[in-house]
């Protein structure tokens, strides 16, 4: 489909082209971010607590009891 030059040089067509360009850039950025692995910032911060006893359904081993 070919459009006349008068339409291609109009202000509303330029605004539409800018909107499409920005929209495309945003969706490309979102797609790239979605494919990257998720980063959990809490993994890199020091832990503020540590349990004194395990909450596991399995009993503590002797090593664990001596350590704690």
UniProtKB/TrEMBL annotation:
Keywords: Membrane, Transmembrane, Transmembrane helix. The chain crosses the membrane at residues 12-33. It comes from the Bacteria. This is Uncharacterized protein. The lineage of its organism: Bacteria, Bacillati, Actinomycetota, Actinomycetes, Mycobacteriales.
């Amino acid at each position: 489909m070919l459009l006349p030059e008068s339409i291609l040089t109009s202000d509303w067509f330029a605004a539409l082209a800018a909107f499409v360009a920005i929209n495309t850039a945003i969706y490309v950025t979102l797609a790239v971010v979605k494919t990257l692995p998720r980063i959990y910032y809490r993994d890199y911060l020091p832990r503020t607590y540590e349990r004194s006893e395990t909450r596991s359904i399995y009993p503590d081993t002797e090593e664990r009891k001596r350590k704690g």
